[in-house]
Write a structure and sequence with these properties.
Elements: H1 10-21, H2 33-36, H3 39-43, H4 51-67
């Protein structure tokens, strides 16, 4: 079972750590800014493209975006 807890006092965090040492619970590390931030920061550079491939990808994206119809009313 998973439970999310918001720690309001550092004494509570110490108690949770003690419970983890006794093998009663398992604490997960808090999310870092990169993990909880924007997706663009998480996936930046994930495609590992060469410069030529990156340029082709950007041109294809620009062409696709220019084909969209913007009239939404």
């Amino acid at each position: 079972m998973t439970v999310t807890v918001k720690v309001l006092n550092m004494s509570a965090l110490n108690l949770l750590s003690d419970m983890e040492r006794l093998d009663l619970i398992r604490l997960n590390a808090p999310a870092t800014a990169a993990e909880s931030g924007k997706l663009s920061s998480q996936f930046a550079g994930a495609l590992k493209l060469t410069d030529a491939q990156y340029e082709m990808h950007q041109n294809a994206l620009q062409e696709t975006r220019s084909e969209w119809e913007r009239n939404i009313y």
